[in-house]
Amino acid sequence: MLLSMTGFGRATSTINDRTITVEIRSLNSKFTDVRFKMPQAYKEKEHVLRKLIVDKAQRGKIDVTIDLKSLNGDGEYALNQALFTKYYKELHQLSNELAMPQADIMQAILRIPNVVSSAQDAVDDSEWQSVLDTINIALDNFTSFRLEEGSAMEKDCRLRIESITGLLSELEPLESERVTKLRQRINKHMEEYVGKDNIDANRFEQEILYYLEKMDITEEKVRLTQHCKYFMEVLDSKDTIKGRKISFISQEMGREINTLGSKANSSDIQRSVVKMKDELEKIKEQILNTI
């Protein structure tokens, strides 16, 4: 099953008098980019959290938010009253001396580093374990969301691969018509420029064979069929990380379809090739959002 690169997971738990809420969101990205928004007290554990997230989320632009709230109304942050008072006295005196307005002194002091600090400098083991448990639940929900999205994408890709395979099977009768039209066209030109009685039958057949060899698309059809088959085999595999692999396969499919178009020499075949390209582009759009 495919795994979507975009996803969302949320989990909440309570320990003692605190509620821990974890939210994980991800968007498309070629690389793994994990960003955290969490209480200052958890910063020292960021390397542990990063490894946990990367191991399970694999790839994408991932935002992790850990919110901590007290059920008793205590805030996560505390005011350093002594430092606040010191700044206030100094700024108040300075504003009086310079005859400056004092309306914004309070807000200015609150923005000074260390005036407002974390109410908790260290995390005890029980709280940290609760945080990890909550993150794991959020990750499970996050993965379920990705799998659900990936399932819809996989279904769409399968339908489009089947469409390309169906269009391939329609080329054979068009190839026969193409040979007949080619023979008629060359014969008509030779009669016009050389004369019907001056046409060398052996040379005429040699020219027909030359053009048929240049126009032959048997190899391209065989390779494209194999690529489609391999694409389906990868989708059927138990691996969840398969986005890059099917991306490579789709690139190879594109090469074969382009070659079919360049050798078409038939408006009907060209129309089928255009339809194949359209289906393949839609497959590539889906692949961009897979891990």
Task: Note down, in words, how this protein is organized.
21% of the residues are buried. Strand 3, helix 1 and strand 4 (60-70) form a beta-alpha-beta unit. 62% of the residues lie in helices and 14% in strands. Helix 7 packs antiparallel against helix 8 (243-263). The protein is built from nine helices and six strands. The protein folds into three domains: 7-75 and 124-146, 2-Layer Sandwich (Ribosomal Protein S5, domain 2), CATH 3.30.230; 77-117, no CATH class; 149-287, no CATH class. The chain has a four-stranded mixed beta sheet. Strands 5-6 form a two-stranded antiparallel sheet. It is α+β, with helices and mostly antiparallel strands and 291 residues long.
Short description:
The chain has about 290 residues and is α+β, with helices and mostly antiparallel strands. The protein contains nine helices and six strands. It has a four-stranded mixed sheet.
The sequence of SSEs as H and E is EEEHEEHHEHHHHHH
Helix content: 55-70%
Number of helices: 9
Which spans have pLDDT < 50 for at least 5 consecutive residues?
A: none
**Number of E strands:** 6
> What is the domain total for the residues?
3
Mean pLDDT: 85
What multimeric state do the chains show?
A: single chain
What is the molecular shape? elongated
Structural class: alpha+beta
Biggest β-sheet description: 4 strands, mixed
DSSP strand (E) fraction? Answer: 5-15%
Strand order of the largest sheet: 1-2-4-3
Distance between termini? 11 Å
Evaluate the radius of gyration. 34 Å
